[in-house]
Amino acid sequence: MAVFELNQIPLLSRSALDRADHLRGDAQVLEEGWATARLLRIGRRGTVRYESGALVWEAATELSAGPSPDAVFLGVREGVHLWAVRDRELAGELRDLRQLADSRIDDFTAGVLSAALALINWHAGAAFHGADGSPMIPAKAGWSRVTEDGREDFPRTDPAVICLIHDGGDRVLLARQHSWPATMFSLLAGFVEAGESLERCVEREMCEEVGLEVRDIRYLGSQPWPFPRSLMLGFSALADPEQPLVFTDGEIAEARWFTRDEVRAALASGGWPARPGAGIDPAPAAGPKLLLPGSVSIARTIVESWVAADGADSPAE
Predict the structure, then answer these.
(1) Tell me, what CATH number does 75's domain have?
(2) What CA–CA distance (Å, rounded) separates 102 from 97?
(3) What sequence ranges are listed for the domain Nudix hydrolase (predicted)?
(4) Which among 121, 53, 41, 46 is positioned nearest to 82, based on CA atoms?
């Protein structure tokens, strides 16, 4: 029975950002640090200014004289405080995280953007308390929100599983959503339901989406996914290729078993465009027969790791 592990850390999990969480509640230190702090502006759809191979930061004092309630504290780098703020009018040479990932961004940039996007996206939908609709305002430098009577909410993270289904040998199951072009495939994934374990979620989602019963579920690793604020938990599982594929929940348009050589060739041809479906003919007459996710996704790391394992048998158990 072939088993494998991730052969590298997923891109968005390689954060080199010092979050300095001990400073979030220290108003005096944050006030003092604001004078030399740097600010990152986040535009529509999570875009940022990116010029000459680096994020464009500005002096925080250009936003306000002191820490702004609209800004979120990201951490510290070389003694300098780092903040981010939503700017829907942002202009210039703009890129989003998916595009930057294909440019081999460094670990610091990956960590900064993952944190900034997740926090800002959470704030956008957390203006009111879920229990009674009471207004909430940012607190702890953007790492919580509080009501007038002191009730506190913290950033929400939605866990989701993503699973590579293989046959224990040389084949892997990949699937395509209805909105994707005919050659674009990835791993199956789904959100964890209330009161559900991760393993049970894998079993349920794989059955719901393609009708397969899976076994030997193994955890591989995780990655933040700030679109808008999720955590992807990677797994592998075994299934019998002779089982019929049944698309019961309507999310999957097509699923196919691919050989290791087919997947290896697809990896060599590159990845999806920055925005899946953009710039690709829905029915291309030529080009790669299989397109796989780009480097921003843990799906890419999982597939690459499976290919690299090359079908080696697991130790006897």
Answers:
(1) 3.90.79.20
(2) 9
(3) 155-280
(4) 41
CA–CA separation, 218 and 199 (whole Å): 8
Residue 184 is given by DSSP the state B
What digits encode the pLDDT tens for the residues 40-67? 999 998 999 999 889 999 999 999 999 9
Cβ atoms 294, 105 nearer than 8 A: no
Q: Which residue, 134, 153, 172, sits at the end of a domain? A: 153
Q: Cβ of 221: how many Cβ atoms within 10 Å?
A: 18
Same domain, 149 and 162: no
Distance CA 302, CA 234 (A): 8
Distance CA 287, CA 285 (A): 7
The reply to whether 165 and 230 lie within a common domain is yes
Tokens of 119: 């926090």
Q: Are 84 and 46 in contact (CB under 8 A)?
A: no
Minimal CA–CA distance to 23: which of 11, 14, 31?
31
Least confident among 102-111, 126-135, 202-211, 221-230: 102-111
Query: Are 138 and 169 within one domain?
Result: no
Q: What is the pTM of this model?
A: 0.91
Which among 1, 11, 74 has a CA at the least distance from the CA of 41?
74
Which domain, by its residues, includes 259?
A: 158-309
C-alpha 61/C-alpha 242 separation (Å) is 63
Q: Is 136 exposed, middle or buried (0-12, 13-18, 19+ CB in 10 A)?
A: buried
Both 118 and 207 in one domain: the answer is no
Peptide bond into 228 cis (omega under 30): yes
Same domain, 211 and 257: yes
pLDDT tens track for 157-175: 999 999 999 999 999 999 9
Decide which of 153, 171, 187 is a domain's last residue: 153
pLDDT in tens, 188-224: 999 999 999 999 999 999 999 999 999 999 999 999 9
Q: In which residue are the tokens 């004289």 written?
A: 65
